[in-house]
Design brief:
Structural class: mainly alpha
Shape: elongated
Number of helices: 6
Helix content: 55-70%
Bound molecules: heme C
Largest sheet: none
Distance between the termini: 60 Å
Pfam family, one: Cytochrom_C
Protein name: C-type cytochrome
InterPro entries: Cyt_c-like_dom, Cyt_c-like_dom_sf, Cyt_c_1A/1B
Number of strands: 0
Keywords: Electron transport, Heme, Iron, Metal-binding, Signal, Transport
């Protein structure tokens, strides 16, 4: 009985595996974004939210961050290091900032550094995706 069904099982499994591979590749972009969001929540979520309707936490709200002038979210009390930064957030300065915030802007009150380039890339991709949707 078992012997007779094994060949068919093998074929069925191969078809399922093929279908899975196909859906994985078409869903890759979505999966990347889900991974990116998870990374953001894990690494930054204790201190930051991105929902424009939510208030600040320990750090300022990051809604629409990419393209926003540094140190300008209404109602948040920034350090002079950020209030006087004078630049607009983009992928480049975000990369430097989350690599080591206090080395990039000495005097900043954000105690964060991330040594893993893959994690930094995911976080920045997530923040960029939010600004495109806005
Ligand atoms: C322990 C809390 C904490 C964590 C974790 C944290 N931040 Fe911050 N963040 C802050 C604080 C506090 C400030 C305000 C810094 C200042 O005024 O010098 C800030 C400011 C910022 C700003 C400046 C925003 C603006 O309006 O100019 C950005 C961008 C930012 N954080 C991104 C991130 C990202 C991305 C992560 C995760 C990789 C992260 N932060 C993790 C506390 C945190």
């Amino acid at each position: 009985m078992m012997g007779g069904t094994q060949g068919g099982m093998g074929k069925a499994l191969a078809v399922v595996a093929g279908a899975l591979l196909f859906s994985i590749s078409t869903a890759q972009a979505d999966d990347d974004l889900v991974a990116a969001q998870k990374q953001f929540v894990t690494s930054c979520g204790t201190c930051h939210v991105v929902d424009p309707a939510a208030g600040p936490r320990q750090g300022p709200n990051l809604a629409g961050l990419v393209g926003r002038k540094a140190g300008t979210y209404p109602g948040y009390k920034y350090s002079a290091a950020l209030a006087n930064a004078g630049f607009t957030w983009d992928a480049d300065n975000l990369e430097k900032w989350i690599t080591n915030a206090q080395a990039f802007r000495p005097g900043s009150t954000m105690p964060y550094r991330q040594a893993d380039p893959a994690k930094r890339a995911r976080i920045i991709a997530y923040l960029k995706s939010l600004s495109v949707q806005k």
